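Subgroup meeting minutes
Present: P.N., E.W., G.H.
Scribe: E.W.

1. P.N. recapped why we're keeping a running log of single-chain structure predictions: easier to compare across weeks, and new members can see raw inputs and outputs side by side.
2. G.H. added today's entry (167 aa).
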Amino acid sequence: MSRSLVKCLAVAGLAVAAASPAAAQASAASINASVTVLEVLNVTGVRDLAFGQIQRGGTRTIDALADVAAAGVFSVTASAPVTVAWTLPVQTAAAVPVTFGNWTFAEANDAAGTGATTFTLTGVNSTHNLTTAVTQRFLFVGGQATVPANATLGLQSAVIQVNVAYN
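Output recorded in log:
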């Protein structure tokens, strides 16, 4: 073969190589899809906070930790930490000046209050975090009912409300 033919073939080979596209680069990635399945969140009023009979001008106090049998009780069923939002009554109504105050609170793993620990709320609309992920937790409510000398006779009541949400 002649030199010119070799040069022509070399130049033609270079031209073909330059005109051919380079092999395409490929890349791939993946992620996981996951979900944590939680227990259906439920709160139930187990027992009312009942101060019993109080004479006009009298006061009765129920301590949530010391008097678990008389304290009001809520049951919370959850499988992860939750926030408990409390709405406490200031008084039953303007016409019925029975006041509820000096609230006390405790929580335990059973309705008997075994090993109960106390917690504090900062006002009548407060929150408390249950950081222990247990199947069921019991919340105990105590307080003080003060009846003025001119209070209306008969049963007086007010609502203590609890709302629970997963954190």
